[in-house]
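Predict structure. Chain length: 82.
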Amino acid sequence: MPTTTPQHEPNGVLRFDTPIGSDQVTVFVSESSLRARYGGAPAAGDDIESMYCMHQLEINAAVARRIRAGARQPVVLRASDL
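Prediction complete.
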């Protein structure tokens, strides 16, 4: 099962689904959390969907860590998780 295309919600949150083991996990991560980890102020043409795509493996690994630690769906990632 592939990761779904991330959806940038109007409230500044990125939503996507990703496979973890045999489960499909819904994940939410805020733009501020992504920028805190991967980059500061937005530049022209810079969006959080592309930021997610550039760091997808690392972000999905953070989801897997949260699930192994007992998180339930939906998983909400914080900057400290990344």
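Summary: The longest helix spans residues 56-68.
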